[in-house]
Specification:
Layout: E1 33-38, E2 46-51, E3 54-56, H1 58-63, H2 69-78, H3 84-89, H4 91-105, H5 112-115, E4 119-121, E5 125-128, E6 136-139, H6 143-153, E7 169-171, E8 177-179, E9 184-185, E10 188-191, E11 200-203, E12 207-208, E13 211-217, E14 236-243, E15 246-247, H7 248-254, E16 268-270, E17 275-276, E18 284-285, H8 304-309, E19 311-312, E20 315-321, H9 323-327, E21 333-339, H10 347-355, E22 366-368, H11 383-386, E23 394-395, E24 401-402, E25 410-417, E26 425-426, E27 430-435
Parallel strand pairs: 6-22, 8-16, 9-27
Antiparallel strand pairs: 1-2, 1-5, 2-3, 3-4, 6-7, 10-11, 12-15, 13-14, 13-22, 14-16, 14-17, 18-19, 20-21, 20-25, 23-24, 25-26, 25-27
Helix pairs in contact: 2-4
The structure holds manganese (II) ion.
Length: about 450
């Protein structure tokens, strides 16, 4: 587990002035990694580090001789078109690069004049998925989400008996993971109308979101060699926001017996910036205490460090902007807010469980946390919960009502961490607009 060091000092300020503004997502204490290029160009994609409203290009900075030997290899790897090689280097290399970046971006740094030409305004940039994602697994780590969904799909048996023993997951689809800002069309599929015995084919009428975090694997494990819980976090590069778009009507017809399939694999949106576990160190906290009747985790899912600080207090928010709100210049309206700290299973438990059978995780693999609903209904991370299965519409500030998504609705996820004695750091937006279904022949 990353410990606090000089890079977390809340008193640090940057010579990039926008990084010092109150409420900025990317102060010098954050330093998240993404892959970018100047918008509208054919420049090669390359890794970058967000600082204020700019992006530092570490590959260019390394070429300019800004970093010393301790960070040179990691800075060079960061300059590549995907972050996989940096991810594979491990925590010592990530940490050395973070320290070098922190020192070079501080107010008064000797490197400031050399680095100014290595900055690109975020307003001029476009992003791509920051790693080659070989495999994507989506978990189900919020017991509150699992219970609320279970009550709708199986009122007599909401929480299945394995939930409190196993971090439940399924294998998602990596090819349809897209980056924030890429819009997509409403999917078609098989839907069983209420009371019918045969399905119809058509566009989903119950399009939903899932508020999740994405966990990027850094160092992998050899096939046949599980990752111990105590070592699990050393295999995690960092976290971003993830929206697991879900077609609930397709899902309810297809999900038994093998779980979700076409209801989820048409689009999954990630935010462009990966916040490292080291940057998240000040916001660690204990996971929720298990209910008295809950089983203790099996030994491979239990360790003192996980019990004491296995959770992270990341504030999360869901916002919606309808097409009409956009036309009238109204900002996205908040629908729900929660924190990652409510999750039943931790980051380390996901990694340990995923590999316990010898499954090999690889650099760039993505683990979704599952919908991170909190204990109360206003903390729910999906419309199916917020509207109780579509029965209680939400009313937006302009009077529009929604159960599931209409064409043109733009959904925005936000995340940030703040705590007395630490800087506030943010994740940047994870946003996309649902476009109308394409005509089918
Ligand atoms: Mn999901």
């Amino acid at each position: 587990m990353a410990t606090l060091n000089e890079t977390h000092d809340p008193a640090l300020a940057s010579w990039v002035a926008s990084a010092n503004q109150a409420g900025a997502d990317f102060p010098i204490q954050n330093l998240p990694f993404g892959v970018f290029r100047r918008r509208g160009t054919q420049e090669t994609w390359r890794g970058g580090v967000a600082i204020g409203d700019h992006i530092l290009d570490p590959g260019a900075a390394q070429a300019a001789g800004v970093f010393d030997a301790s960070a040179a290899a990691a800075a060079t790897a960061c300059g590549e078109a995907s972050l996989n090689r940096l991810m594979a280097m491990g925590p010592a290399a990530w940490s050395a690069l973070r320290l070098a970046l922190s020192r070079a971006l501080r107010q008064g740094a000797a490197q400031a004049s050399a680095l100014r030409s290595c900055l690109v305004p975020q307003a001029d940039a476009e992003y791509t998925v920051p790693a080659h994602i070989g495999d994507y697994t989506d978990f189900y780590t919020s017991v509150h989400h699992a219970t609320h969904i279970g009550q709708q799909f199986r009122p007599d048996n909401p929480l299945l008996p394995n939930y409190k023993w196993i971090p439940i997951g399924y294998h998602g689809r990596a090819s349809s993971i897209i980056v924030s800002g890429q819009d997509f069309h409403r999917p078609h599929g098989q839907i069983l109308p209420p009371g019918a015995t045969a399905p119809v084919f058509g566009p989903s009428r119950k399009m939903d979101i899932e508020l999740e975090l994405a966990v990027y694997i850094g160092v992998g494990n050899a096939r046949g060699h599980p990752i111990a819980l105590a070592d699990a976090e050393a295999h995690v590069f960092g976290l971003s926001l993830l929206n697991d778009w879900s077609a609930r009507d397709i899902q309810s017809w297809e999900y038994q017996p093998l779980g979700p399939f076409l209801s989820k694999n048409f689009a999954t949106t990630v935010s462009p910036w990966i916040v490292t576990l080291e940057a998240l160190a000040p916001y660690r906290t204990a996971p929720p205490v298990r209910d008295a009747g809950d089983p203790p985790p099996l030994p491979y899912l239990d360790a003192p460090a996980n019990r004491n600080a296995g959770a992270i207090d990341i504030q999360l928010q869901v916002l919606m902007q309808t097409a009409r709100m956009r036309d009238q210049g109204q900002a996205a309206a908040p629908l729900a807010a929660t924190s990652y700290r409510h999750a039943y299973w931790t980051l380390a438990q996901m990694v340990a469980h995923h590999s316990v059978n010898g499954c090999n995780l690889q650099p760039g693999d993505l683990l979704g946390t599952g919908t991170l609903s909190g204990p109360t209904l206003d903390q729910a991370g999906a419309l199916i919960e917020l509207t109780v299965g579509g029965q209680q519409p939400l009313t937006l500030p302009n009077g529009e009502q929604r159960t599931y998504l209409d064409d043109g609705d733009r959904m925005v996820l936000r995340g940030w961490c703040e705590r007395p004695g630490a800087a506030r750091i943010g994740f940047g937006d994870c946003a996309a607009t649902l476009l109308p279904a394409l005509m089918q022949v």
